[in-house]
From TrEMBL:
Organism: Virgisporangium aliadipatigenens
Sequence ranges assigned to domain HTH tetR-type in this UniProt record: 20-79
Record-linked Pfam families: TetR_C_43, TetR_N
Keyword Amino-acid biosynthesis carried by entry: no
DNA-binding region coordinates: 42-61
Coiled-coil regions listed in the entry: none
Molecular-function annotations in GO: DNA-binding transcription factor activity; transcription cis-regulatory region binding
Entry keyword set: DNA-binding, Transcription, Transcription regulation
Name the record gives this protein: TetR family transcriptional regulator
Top-level lineage group: Bacteria
Length: 207
């Protein structure tokens, strides 16, 4: 085997590294553009910001929907990781709960594509949903153990509340941005252990 044979893989490694850098640049730029403009943005703007040609962009992501799904998945997983770290680092259980909701909704309010995804696809993937549910369950359990959560509140209650407040972010994003903060405070007050009135059983119809 000659020296040339040993050196042959280098160009391939170089091309692979270039491709990975291009992919990372596309995802980073797309995350910024989708957050600012939403999912209807022209992909040429993403290519421009990432510094790649349209051909390169389409080689990595043949459709805009595929790129959007990849970006939202990465962003939501990154947020969940950060939210988990913050919840663990917060000693006060009630502050951990309120911090979770504030971080969730603040993240959505600053990201137009995330808000739109709740209307078009129902939100994040099933994997992200399960991670989110698990985190809510951990935070709820801490609040129950500390006696600061209203009796009878379940993990499912808090999970559904997060979805309802996400819809509030969606419906008020243009007309009343930031209104969700008021609704969150009202909701958190209802979750406090100061409220001891028994909650209706799940599935109970209103009278």
């Amino acid at each position: 085997m000659t020296l040339a044979d040993h050196a042959a893989p280098a160009p391939r490694r170089g091309r692979w590294a270039d491709a990975e850098r291009n992919r990372a640049a596309i995802i980073e730029a797309a995350g910024q553009v989708f957050a600012e403009c939403g999912g209807s943005v022209d992909v040429r703007e993403i290519a421009r910001r990432s510094g790649v040609g349209m051909g390169t962009l389409y080689r990595h992501f043949p459709t805009k929907d595929e790129l959007l799904t990849t970006v939202l998945e990465q962003q939501f997983n990154a947020w969940l990781t950060d939210a988990h770290q913050q919840a663990v680092a917060t000693e006060d259980p009630w502050q951990a709960l309120t911090g979770f909701f504030e971080q969730l909704l603040d993240n959505q309010a600053d990201n137009r594509a995330v808000v739109e995804s709740y209307a078009t696809t129902g939100g994040p993937s099933e994997y992200c949903v399960q991670r989110c549910y698990s985190l809510i369950d951990q935070v709820r359990t801490r609040c129950v153990d500390a006696g600061v959560l209203r009796p009878g509140v379940t993990t499912e209650d808090l999970f559904l509340l997060s979805g309802s407040l996400s819809q509030a972010v969606l419906t008020t994003a243009d007309s009343h941005p930031g209104r969700w903060r008021r609704l969150l405070r009202i909701s958190l007050d209802g979750l406090s252990s100061r409220n001891t009135e028994p909650l209706p059983e799940p599935g109970t119809a209103g009278s």
